[in-house]
Model the fold of this input.
Amino acid sequence: MRGATLRQLRAFSLVARHHSFGRAAAELHLTPSAVSLQIKELEQSVGLALFGRNGKASILTAAGEILLADVNRALRALKDADDAVNRLHGRETGVVSLGIVSNAKYFVPRLLGRFHSVHPGVEMRVTVGNREQLLRHLSNREVDFAVMGQPPLELDARSEPLGPQPLGIIASPDHRLARQRDIAAESLVTQEFIMREPGSGTRAAMDRFFHEMHISPIRVIELDSNESIKQAVMGNMGLAFISLHTVSLELHTGTLVLLDVVGLPLVRYWHVVSLESETMSDAAKSMRRFIVEFGGGFIEREFVGANIRQPVKPASIPAA
Done:
C-alpha cells in the first residue's frame, strides 16, 4: 500500500460505493478510463484484484471488502484534518456525507436548504438508497449519518427519533374502492398491488401489515422508485402501500386517493442514525443536530396534517 496515491484511494472508495466506474468518474470529474487506470495501479500495489463483475455492476472482491473500511477511515481522517485547518483560519467549512432512504427525499432536501442558509461553507453530499443500502454505507463509513425508519439493531449505532411517518394504501380516483369507507383488510386479498423492492423499509412495513392481517394480496409488479409506483397507480394498474409523505401533493390535488382501510394509516417514525464508534466532524455534528432539532416540527407542520386530506389514525407500529 505504500505506493498507493490519494487519487487511487478516492477512486477505489467511490467505485465501491456506486458499483460503477462510470458513476465514480462522474463524481471525480474524470473519464471512466482514467478511473479504471487508477484502480488497476492500486491493484498492482496491493497485489490482488479489488473488483469483480456481476452483470454490469462492479462488485468488491474479498480483498476489496477488507481494504474498503480502512481506506474510508483514512479518507475521513484527511477530511477531518482539512476541517481542523479551516477552523484555525476561522472558516466554517467541511464536507458532510448524508444518506437518506428514498421516502425521506421528499422532506430532507428542504431541511438541508435551511441548514445551508446558515452554514453556507459546508458542502453536502447526499446518497439516496433503500434501507439495506444505507446500512451498508454506514457500516463502510461512506456516510456520516443517515435518515431512515427503523434504527439498525445489527450495528453499534446511535439513533434519535425525528418525526412520524404515516403509511397507507393509495389508489387511482377511478378505482372501485376509492369511495368506499371502512374497508376491511380481508377485502384486499383480491386486489392487485404495485410494491417496493425487497430491502425497502416500506416493503417491510407492508409485509408486516399483511402478515398481521393474515392476507396475501396479488403482486403485479415490483418497482424501486416511488415516482414510478405513483404513476402506475394513477394509471389504475393497482394499489400501493406507500409512505404518505411521498404522495402529499397528489392526495391534495386529488390525482391519488388514500383508501379508508381499517387499521390504516400506520405510523412509524423517522430516525437519524450514526455509528457510535465514529468520530464525526464538527460540520457533520452541526448538520445532525440541526436535522434532529428542526426536522420533527417541520414534518408535523408540512406533512402529517396539512397535506393529507384524511386524518391519520392513532395506530402505531414499530418501524420496519
About this structure: The first strand starts at residue 51 and ends at 54.
